[in-house]
Design goal:
The structure is a single chain. The chain is an alpha+beta fold. The strands form 2 sheets. Strands 1-4-5 form a 3-stranded antiparallel beta sheet. A two-stranded antiparallel sheet has the order 2-3. A hairpin with a 5-residue loop joins β4 and β5. The longest helix has 15 residues.
Length: 73
């Protein structure tokens, strides 16, 4: 199986849509949230989950960014 990657830069828009809201032509389920990264009129990634699931996912982002080597001082 090949993987599909969507690319955006660090200036990507970030939006949160609560349950009952609409993302494109799809509704977000009650009790869930949709975190949208990127341009909803172009290419965007939608991460869905409960508030706890999205908080755990968001907590993993700083850990991944910390792996970027810092330039020597």
């Amino acid at each position: 199986m090949s993987h599909r990657y969507e690319w955006t830069d660090a200036n990507a828009d970030v939006r949160l849509v609560p349950g009952g809201g609409v993302v494109g032509q799809d509704s977000v389920e009650a009790g869930a949230y949709a975190l949208i990264l990127g341009d909803p009129n172009g290419t965007a990634l939608v991460v869905t989950g409960t508030d706890g699931e999205l908080r755990m996912w968001a907590d993993s982002v700083p850990n991944a960014v910390r792996m970027i080597p810092r330039p020597p001082t």
